[in-house]
Amino acid sequence: MITLKDVYNDESLWDAFLDQLTLNEMVMMVIDGGYGTRGVERLGIPQTWDNDGPASVKGQNGIVFTDSGTAYPCETCLACTWNVELAEKMGKGVGKEARDISTDIWYAPGVNIHRNPAGGRNFEYFSEDPVISGKMAAAVINGANSEGLVVTIKHFVMNDQESHREGVFTWADEQAMREIYLKAFEIPIKESPCRGVMSAFNRIGTKWCGSSSALLKDVLRNEWGFEDFVVSDYSWNFTGTGYMNPVIAVYNGNDTMLTGIWAINCPSHVIAVTAAYYRDPIGMGNALREACKNLCIAKMETKAFLEPYEYDGSFIGALDMPSEWNFYSPYIFSVSWYIINNILNAIIFVVRHIL
C-alpha cells in the first residue's frame, strides 16, 4: 500500500499511488467538494474543512458553521491603503484564526474587477485596477500560507456583476481579458503559493467558466504553471446535466464541485460521472485521475495532512463548554446568552445532519 505520505516523500510514486484509487473513490473526490474535500482514509488522503472569506474565515461545516474569525475591513478598504505589508499581516492573522477553528482551505481572496461602482459584490474584491488587485491578493496569500492556510483565489474569471451571475453570458476580447481581468489572477498565481482557484458562475461567451479548457488548462496551467486544484463556485445543479454539469467540469480541468446541498446533489452527480466513465473509460478515466492528483497536491500543503487532528462531530462537540465561554457581570445576561448560543448550536447541528 502506497500512501499520500509516501508520495510526499518520493514523487516518483505518483503513478503507482493513483493506480490504487477505485472508480468510486475518484468519483466521490471530484463531486464532493462542498465546503471540504473528500478524503480516502486507506490511502492517507485527508478530508479537509473549507469555508468562505474573504473578510473573515469561517469554521467547519459550510453554511451551518458555528465558529468564525475576526471581521476584517473589506478588500476594497484594504486596497485603498496601497500597503502590501499590511495585506500580508491580514493574511497571517486569518491563517492563525483558521488554525484555531480547524479550517484547512479558505475560499479567498477575491480578485475580480470593479467594472461598475454599483457592483453587488465589489466588497469582496480589491479594485478596478488589476495590478493593485493582484499585488494585494499575493500579499494576503503569502501571509495566510505562512500559517499553513491553503487558499482558493476567486472567482475565475470576469465574474464582475452580482445580478444574474449564475450563468450570465460575459463578452470580451482577448486583449481586454489579458490586460485587465486575467492579470488580477495571473499576478498572485505567479507571485504567491496559491494552491487553489475557484472557477466562476458566469459564462465566457457561451461556455461556463468551469467547463472552459482554454481557461482552466491552456491559460491557468499551461501558460501560468498552476499545479494545484480548481473548485467550482456553489453548485445548484441537482440533475448532473446542463449548466454546471460535473462531467464537462472534470473533462475541462475543474477538479471538484462545490456541491451546495449534498443529499440532493450526490445521486445525480454520481450517476452522471460514473456513466461518463463507462461511455469513455480512457478519456474520463484520465480526467478523474488528473483531478484527484491535483486535489492531492493541494491537500499535501494543508494542516489536515501536515498536522493531522481529530474533529469531534458529535452533538457534545457542537456545544460550547462553560470553560470556553467568557462569563461577565451582570452574570444573568452572559449566562442567558450562553444558553441561547447553545440552543442555536443544537439547532444548527440538527440542520447540518439533515443537509
Summarize the helices and strands and which ones pair or pack.
Blueprint: H1 4-9, H2 14-19, H3 23-31, E1 36-37, E2 48-52, H4 75-80, H5 84-100, E3 105-107, H6 130-146, E4 150-156, E5 169-170, H7 174-181, H8 183-191, E6 196-199, E7 203-204, E8 207-208, H9 213-223, E9 229-235, H10 246-251, E10 256-259, H11 262-279, H12 281-299, H13 303-306, H14 315-318, H15 331-354
Parallel strand pairs: 2-3, 3-4, 4-6, 5-7, 6-9, 9-10
Antiparallel strand pairs: 1-2, 7-8
Helix pairs in contact: 3-11, 3-12, 5-6, 6-8, 11-12
Can you give a write-up of this model?
This protein is α/β, with parallel strands linked by helices and 355 residues long. The chain has 2 domains: 4-309, TIM Barrel; 312-355, no CATH class. Helix content is 46%, strand content 11%. The strands form 2 sheets. It has a 7-stranded mixed β-sheet. A 3-stranded mixed β-sheet has the order 5-7-8, with no helix packed on it. The longest helix is centred in the C-terminal third of the chain and has 24 residues, at 331-354. It is globular. The model has no long low-confidence stretch (mean pLDDT 93).
In short:
Helix content is 46%, strand content 11%.
As laid out across the biggest beta sheet, the strand order is 1-2-3-4-6-9-10
Query: Mean pLDDT, rounded to whole units?
Result: 93
- The CATH superfamily name of the largest domain is Glycoside hydrolase, family 3, N-terminal domain
The separation of the N and C termini measures: 34 Å
- Give the name of the CATH architecture of the largest domain: Alpha-Beta Barrel
Order of helices and strands: HHHEEHHEHEEHHEEEHEHEHHHHH
Shape descriptor reads globular
| Largest sheet report | 7 strands, mixed
Q: Level of helix content? A: 40-55%
